[in-house]
Amino acid sequence: MKLAAYLRSLAAKFFRRAQISDDMDEELRSHIQLRADDLARSGFSRAEAERRARIEFGGYQRFREESHEALGGQFIETALQDVRFALRTLRKSPGFVAVAILTLAMAIGANAVVFSLLNGLILRPLNIPRADSLYMVERGVNEESPMQSYPDYVDLRDRNRSLSGLVAYDIDRAGVDTGGNPSSSWLYEASGNYFDELGIQPYLGRFFHASDERGPNSAPYIVLGYDYWHSHFQADRGVVGRSVLVNKYPYTILGVAPPGFRGSELFFTPDFWVPIVDQEQMAGNSDLNSRGTRGTWLLGRLKTGVTPAQATADLNSVAGYLVKSYPKDDDRISFKLARPGLIGDMLGRPVRAFLAGLTLLAGLILLAACANLGSLFTARAADHSREIALRLALGSSRRRIVRQMLTEAVLVSLAGGVAGLIGAIVLLRWLSHWQPVANMPINGLPVNPDLSVYAMALLLALASGLLFGMVPIRQVLRANPWQVVKSGSSGAAGSKLTIRDLLLVVQIAICAVLVTSSLVALRGLMRSLHSDFGFEPQNALLVDSDLDMAGYSAERVPAMQRRMVDALEGMPGVSAAGLSDRLPLAADWYEDLVFKDSTTDMKMSNAAAETVMYDVTPGYFRAAGTALLFGRTITWHDDKNAPRVAVVNREFARKVFGSETAALGRYYKRTDGTRIQAVGVVENGKHKTLTEDPEPAMFLPILQSPSSATWLIVRSNRDPQELTVAVESTLRNLDAGLVFSIRTWKKQLDSALFASRIATISLGVLGGLGAMLAVTGIFGMAAYSVSKRMRELGIRIALGARRKEVLRAALGRAFRLLAFGSAAGLVLGLAATRILSFIVYQATPRDPLVLAGVVLAMALLGLVATWIPASRALGANPLVLLREE
């Protein structure tokens, strides 16, 4: 009943507001009239009695306002009044409002972008039913890798007791002919239970199932991706049942995947799916029976009630069985679980670490922005101290003034939040369609903003407005209105170090850290473009193909590869041409264990090294620009009938043979026991990442280790576009059905430089934001200092002080804080940029250009920030100031 009565009372206050206001005015007037009547009976005239009654009663409007507040229910009306007054006040200071909104827009926009990345790549699960119960099964502890062998997958699938289902998949390419010219497409080779275990339903037709698998190459079925169906089949619903050629083999289209399903990896959007038992037709060879070849990713779903720790223990009990049963291939094997979507921990760990760092930096930028705006609002409050004092002297409550100031701050923060969110949405929409690596199906990132991003931006805007709006409140609450009205100031600027000073030092230090890091990243990226990779990407054209896509069987591949190399080498202007089954710094690097010649037990723990492996033709080293140091290179006589030989790099020679010169003529063994003789030594290079330490590498004759994977390298000084046309014509003359793509080696390095470029761009943007915030922070400090000391500066000028002395008095404190913060930030930046060496190649903080750049940048920021306050200080008119006082 009490609640109902309260609600009726509250409704009456809203819907009968005019009547209640009239009643309240009548009540207040009656009090004045009653007192006037008493005074009239005491002998005063009626006019004098009413005058004295009004004086005794006090501020009529103040009592009216207090009565309304005491009655309650006036919050909305009061808030609207505050908003209208705040808008009128802010309209008088367009420059201040523009700087404040821009500052906050940059900070909130940066946080919105970073949060969207974090949300899309880490927090938001895969677009798969019950994605929170999915985990990737990786090798752990002894050999961290996301890939397993297919026989191990079968054992894990059949022997585990903690997973309701376990699927296997891999990523590959194939040539697809839908009736016109064949094209290269990306696909998932997936186990037959893939769609069933993930709980995905077809948009059209049906999916393949485990029952469709009856042995190698037994399931010639294809499931199209929704986007691929739209782009290549024009969304034809009659596509189900059609036959297409995949690597020249006929495959039947079973169905179409639903829209929005991008597979089980966030960074990769396949064109279609095929059963993994067809691996031989897709890749030219099959590893499904090889326990030592690890080329499969596993994804499992936990049973209800099973924890990840329990599942890990269960999987490692299966690992114990594998170690005992297959000690040669699964020596010391163990398993762990990782979150899916980013190839487990392979990409997940560095992406999480990078986004955590970006989140921290974005948060610091927002904090610096709030501190800067706090300084600006404090300087503004100092400029309006006389107005505030007059309002207090005329009876306005401090609470109402504080509420008004907070309203102004929240309005500015909301405007900045909206502007920042709009900019973030534009950038995120671009990122969602961005293809950062050429010839890879990374068709944008899943970072489109959702409701959580909008809610986060609104929350940050409100919290920021309240945070920086509260900075000048202490100044208002402690202000003495009579002193301000009398002296024209709220007090002289003190010489003690204040919290605002410390905040400014922190802001400047953060700015210096960001500027230092961005310059280091930029210099490292510039070096990486002109560094020694162990090969020379300049003046080299690449042709990427796979002869399986053109229907070449294993016995026909070597002859065709030699014809291709000979044809390209004979072209005008071509100085060298060669072929390799894979390229250094490409995503498809492959490693194998090697053993000393004296080793008899070929298990993992006895290996001399794990080495990167390439299958190459004789012209590869000249075409790649890799220097031969000792011995000889590979020749066409090193075929399957000749003794097994290899060219190794310096690091291989050091690890396996003890020294570079000792390697020539010596033998080593591979896992299968094959003895190989090292006949040459080449320079070290980069094979997996730009930041890696020297890795051992071996180069085998492709005639002794045939592979259909074909990377042709053409070295020439001819114009790349002209050479591309000539190379394409030459290859089409050999076989019009070849599927290939052509690009420069520098373009191919985009994937290797991706992490460095992202780090450089991200830190560059954050460095720019930090610089702009430092400008506003120093400006706020200098403006506040000048505002507080205008009378003193006027007296100094009147007494004949020189411009230099006036500037020292007005801005000396700001410059001292700038110098201290810059020095602290430079030291922290030098320490922090060591982390960049893991991402950016040859990143070093001890570069003289970086040090000089940081010092110059911070000095320029200081000059830009203090220009307006300095002009105001020097332009002070002592006569006007003293007359006002």
Kindly list the characteristics that best describe this protein:
single chain, 885 residues, alpha+beta, elongated
Short structural summary:
By secondary structure, the protein is α+β, with helices and mostly antiparallel strands. Helices cover 51% and strands 15% of the residues. It has a six-stranded mixed barrel with strand order 3-4-9-6-8-7.
Structure notes:
The protein is of the alpha+beta class and 885 residues long. Helix content is 51%, strand content 15%. It is built from 28 helices and 22 strands. Strands 3-4-9-6-8-7 form a six-stranded mixed barrel. Helix 7 crosses helix 11 and helix 13 packs across helix 17. The longest helix is centred in the middle third of the chain and has 39 residues, at 345-383. Residues 489-494 have low confidence and may be disordered.
